[in-house]
Fold these 2 entries.
Entry 1:
Amino acid sequence: MANIVKTKPRQGITVLGKYTIGTSTTLMAIVVILFVFLSSTSSVFATPENLSNLLRQTSINGIIALGMLMVIITAGIDLSVGAIVAIAGIVNALLMQAGMSMWVSMPLTLVIGAAIGVFNGILIHEVSITPFIATLGTLTIVRGIVMIMSGARMVANLPKEFGQIASGDIFGIPSMFIIWMVLFVATLFLLNYTQLGRNFFIIGSSKEVARLSGIRLRPNMYAVYGLSSLYAALAGILLSSRLSMGVPTAGISYELDAIAAVVIGGGSLFGAAGSAIGAVLGAIIMQTIRNGGNLLGIDPFALQVIIGALILIAVGVDQLRMRKAEKG
Amino acid sequence: MRKLIIGLCAATALALVTGSAFAKDPVEVAVIIKATNSEFWQAVLVGAQNYAKEHEGVTVTTNGPPSEADIDQQVSILEDTVSRGPKGIVISSTSSEATVPAIERAMDQGIPVVTIDNRVKTDKVTSFLATDNVAGGKMAAQQMVEQLKASGKPLEGKVALISSMAGVQVLIDRDSGFEQGLKEYAPGLTLMTPRYVNNDIFTAVNTAQDLVLSNPDLVGIFADNNTTGSGVAKVLSETGKQDSIVAIAFDSDPQEVEALRSGALKALVVQDPYGMGYKGVDSVVRALAGEKLPAYVDTGANIVTKANMEEDTYKNLLDPLGRAIK
Amino acid sequence: MAELIAARGISKAFPGVRALDQVDFVLQPGEVHALVGENGAGKSTLIKILMGVYRRDSGTLSVKGQDIQDFSPQAAQSSGMAAVYQDISLARSLTVGENFFLGHMPKTGWGTIDWALAYDQCGKLLRGLGLDDIDPRATLSSLSVAKQEMVAIAKPVFENADILVFDEPTALLANEETEILFSIIRRLRSEGKGIIYISHRMEEIFAICDSVTVLKDGRHVRTMPVTDTNPDDLVRLMVGRSMEDMYTIRRSPLGEVALEVEGLTREPRFRDIGFDVRHGEIVGLFGLVGSGRTEIMRAIFGADPIERGEIRLDGKPVRFTHPSQAIAAGIGFMSEDRKNQSIALPLSVRTNINLANYPAISPFGVVNQTAEREAARTYIDRLAIKTPSDTVAIRNLSGGNQQKAVLGKNLASNSRILVCDEPTIGVDVGAKSEIYKIFEQLTEEGVAILLVSSYLPEIMGLADRILVIYEGRQMGIVERSEFDEERLVRLASGLQA
């Protein structure tokens, strides 16, 4: 599908005057190379069990990254997502512990999560606090609330069925991955086919242009931060289902992993760039390297260096490509 | 029962030593912990408060920053406390250096200071009470080897080490103690490169998953705190490998205790934070009475297994918060 | 003395486009050399090659007698070359003085910055250039756009550059400042420096330049002394049309009153503004930079709040608190600041044309892709927007084509009233005349146009009536039959006609 909002020059490099290699093609190639390399060096990597582990491991960051992507497209940033992962896990667990059915507690938790995002939107739009600072404040507040609510203790003894949501399989595919893919398709649709998605890109290129083009900033800013928090809250519920408990310290620094996935996937902190497929592939690449590092027993600190370098290379290559395209 | 005896003994001893001093002037001991957000430090406070409740004339005030990262805040709390002038201070100092000036000032003013858990870089302290983490790590290795032997397995294959965080002294001690112990008791076992998980339980689960899957010859896992212990337990019970892999973890929290009961973890190495708090206040009171105290006291690490976990002593170690006197 | 710049046989191709084909260009010391040509003629490409921004594919280049193989912007700068582009590339949050010294602040004996000396030197230069009213300590962003432009112009003089490029320097300037600019240029010329002057304004070229080089479609057409030519010939060389034709459009019969403004006030920017625009009519709004004309436009569009006054559309009073309401009511807006207010630079031409159109083509919030593509295709064709495809980022288009896309954006959202603030700013002659043709068509269709322009030939050629503003005050409305350059300038300067 031709990506209409995003444009070819930002996305790709012209080859033979005809084909353009887009960021997502490059990423796909990296994924293939990683898979081929790991399959040949580790007998375990390509087993169905490891692959299904890998998908389960990636899903949490993958889901958060999709929400983060939308915020980054509007030239914003959401540092509060990690804290929202924690509060969603704890709130949902406490509600279930208090006897609420998970079919009530989960939607309620999602609403609370989205509300925190709207609070971010209010700070950013109405009070004009920059997104970085606004969400940093929210992060700190939410972390504190989580500790108060949980007494810094894990919330365990949750219903068995709840644990099965994230740990289960559907036709042999991890359910967490399926949920992630559903969100991926939803996000892809939202960004490429809806007015809201167009608005995000336009706001990301310039808020003033957006306003003078008749786009009301308020609902759009509330929506984008609300969505980001909603996704993070869903990730938090899934995480606590995966662990069968609410963990007050869950999600620490997850916001950075999500930002990294988006950026590896071609997103730009300057706004108006990024794609859902890119964010998904970015998350897969990061987790594949971690998984492979564990399987091969690579030195954990060297692994960190590799992932950091990957972020810089991904962004650096894009930048150089752009400059080359401009210089001709 | 044991608790009662200790209490009685201490009370008797105190009554003998300090006599009527209590009746007029209550002894206020300030207890400052590293962080209020953790069960471990809460247990220290329970120990200290229980001491006060058991001893008429002793009061305990408690304070501490919300998280272990707030070093500055702990220093100001200590400074304020010294200025207020309690009879004695018990502190678990997060930093080994930042609190030194205030501690020395207190000592100069004649306020005895007992440090617990973390050593500070001055000789001017009344006494230092801590767990020997190296010894604790060694005990974990010994326990692992014994359990492997008991199940009739040959002492060969790989052992994984999942560490909560890199660069934390307590964890480094535990890990190096474990490594020493393993070399000593079962040189045939290979210790794999440690994996660090940022104290994130999800990462701990993911890492344990990867290790279990990719190493068919894995015979044991050592997890050096409660987060990693819970993560490892989760994976072993999910993959049904809990009987082929001996997993031993540090600390105790409800999840770990549950795992011990289910057999996913074969043993827990448990410190005695309650004891640290209790003995810390006790040391202050004894110092005030003019007693000469040893510079260092090991509060001890204990191995809790499924077999002994129901015994009172170990039950108390596993759930120190449950010991609070209402 | 040797030539300052001698470029011969310069060629440059971009994928699919031959931007420059065997172009020669020579700049002598003490010469002001105009570079003219239509949109896409290759002027900016040539400048960028001279300034080391682009690499040439072939040809030779020498600067001050030195053969240049590989050039870079840094190398260009150290050989004394400086360019002032249309979009001011200064640090807006720094002071004027800091911008002058950027990275080379004078130091005291202590190694700290010698602020007094810096501002003193800077102030001296500004006074010497006749820019007494610019405070070297003022933050750049606190200055008007015109003043900022003057700072940008003064900077290379301060740096003692001896090859200067001015790219449309007067686009943002009022007459008075243009005079100062010219005196600066004359002074530089007398000092033996070389100046390349790019402008679409014919009278400026004939007022200040010594020679002129005409480019067309990437080829060198002719280089000659300006005394050998005249504006009409020059325009003909560039586009094959005469200048007279350009600003003259067919007048359309006027319809009912479309837009009525009464007592419009927003202190301290403007007060008691009242006028009307009929369907099919172009009403000009003339005033100096800072006279409040832009603010009036923005207020009508709902972009800024108003304190008092009434706006009526087709007789019905309206009150806009947000541009979306104005757009829904059929008002379109072209800002003078295209890059920051009218177009989303990194997004595609297709998205940009539909920028104000999405509410109309998105039933239940889902964009009708076919309608979106159709709208883009329609306006690319109808307005002859030159673009390889509608998925290309609009930042890759020339200023003229960007501006046509902005027109397309307003037409796609069915504007019946068009508020245009300097619609031809930074637009070359060819695209200009195309935009005028579009205005002509629109008025025929009954669209009412409110046109701000500080360029007299343009506003006098296009408007049916001209409203003159001075310091937020309405000085009068002049009918077409009474158009007179001197009278308009007097009114715009606060003098009664």
Note: The mean pLDDT of chain C is 88.
Entry 2:
Amino acid sequence: MKDSFFRSMTWLHTWVGLIVCWLLYLIFFAGTLSFFRDEITLWNQPAIHNVQAQTQRIEAQKQQIITGFDYLASHGANSSSWRITLPEPRIPYLIYGYAKPKEPGQRRSKFENTQLNPNTMQELEPFVDTKGGNFFYRLHYDLHYMDAITARWIVCFASFFMLIAIISGVVIHKRIFKDMFSFRRNKGSRTWLDAHNLSSVLALPFHLMITYTGMITLIFMLFPYPAQTSYDDGMRGFFNDVTPRNTMTDKAQGELPMVPIQRILDQVYTKWPHADITRVQVNQPNMAASTITVLVSAGKTLRDQAPRLIFSGATGQMVAKTDDELTSSKALYESLNSMHTGRLATWLLRWLYVLGGIAGCVMIGSGCIMWAKRIRERTKNNVKPSFGLKLVEGLNLATIMGLPLATCAFFIANRLLSPTTAERADKEILAFFLTWLAVALLALIKRDTLQWRVMAAINAVACLSVPVINALTTNGNIVSYLMHKQWALFTFDALFLLFSILFFIQTEKLRTAKNNSKIISPSQSNNLKRQKP
Amino acid sequence: MIDLLGFSLCLLSFNCFALAKYNHFKDVFKKRPTESQRKKLLLAAWISILLSLVLCIVTQGGYGTLLFCGFMSLSVLIIMVFYNFLVGYVKWFSVLNSVLVVLSGLFLALN
């Protein structure tokens, strides 16, 4: 540790940030995309592109559930579980699903789903096998190709480091509030410092909130001790206690026909006259122990767990429900959770979350680049750069330019892979990681301006390819989306075009910077080359 | 419309905060602000930002504070762009911002 508070904090900020910055970049990048996970899934499934959102969505729910029960009674009579997922504003289609028998070694049953257009009640074309936006959502905290619990511990540590870096950053960047609106262009590492400060300060409340609440979402994994000491069966007992469960009829034996679903719905609408039902689940249908769980939207309340009522399927009696009024601790936990996910945010707030996420990516990326640039500037001409510097520069190139390219590869693979390909969803993900690996290998070999320029050009072409390939492989394109007011699809394609333009501008900037360096003088040229990211 | 009023108040507030700084004021008006002008700008900025916060919380409930934080981020970004890349347009932008506050406020008052 250094000898003064300020120097200690600078040391802490630099090293705490540098150690985890590439992982944090991935977490922020995937997390930012996850705010649009439903829209990404929509784009990845051409079968639902033309499904229009219902105008009388809530009014139609009762009939959709009744029809669903008839459908499931005839198709999944012997199944252990049924599920009716109702259309939501961002997920415009209806799903009737029943569990298939478990195969050996399987932990959970797979569902046989039938997707319907809620406007016509016609079955939709078969869905392609894709993870869609859920891939980025899980990548955000489960990473990939590793055990989920290990990954979550790693993500938690990175978040903790991020929190330290944010707080120490506020301390060391003394002028961040004074120079809040200042951005000095073309000033070498000073410009990168301004970009770092500006992206940090403009979304500082967001950065603090998202990092802190991110750790809270995994608090029971990080800090299980109170629950472990209070419950005989530890965390399982704790979760059973806070999640409504059927303890009244769960031991009942034998078969019993289920009561008509109207009786259940009448009770739901008596309790919540304007209920926006999101899902109905049936466990052990046609058995004496069967339960029917009705989940409703929490609306605008800061609540993560959907309010639900659980009924006995055999008697129609309500056997459990979520609390109407949450205890202080539960309300705090749920509100922090829902703040992190922004699950119930309006479109405006969702875009503002994305702005915060992008600011986070810029903050982390500019921090990484700034460290490397400063060390480069300090390294004398005749001294070979250290392994550490080369490693940081390589990781910067691989992460900052590799992730956007890998994302494009994921979407291009979604359109180009045949719908009949075995394990298609995994192959889309493989395309993502192989592309990222290729960029990392390139960064291993060389990492100077030329490589950044090449990567920017490839990213520009890849971003342009996404809407073009979409137009060539589906019935829609950016113009038709605009004409038919399919805003989610239009925005998706438009964003890729915008990023394509931004990457072209970056390519040009890097080219002109290189040309300028050739025109001036050899010594200045060397100096400039060293300053390039 | 209530969101527009909340956002335009927040934008106005950061515009006033920026103008209260000597360098930005000088960039826009080619002279240094007097102490009285600075105090008035700061007062307007604080009133405006508090109004924006209250509006967000009153209308959005739990998500209001998050919306307010988002408005702050967007406002700082817009102000930064204008004061660093489009200084010549700051006066027009300030007028437009004030008009937006008045119009959205009037619309809400009349409906």
Note: Chain B touches chain A at residues 3, 14, 17-18, 21, 23-24, 60-63, 66-67, 69-74, 76-77, 79-80, 83-84 (CB under 8 Å).
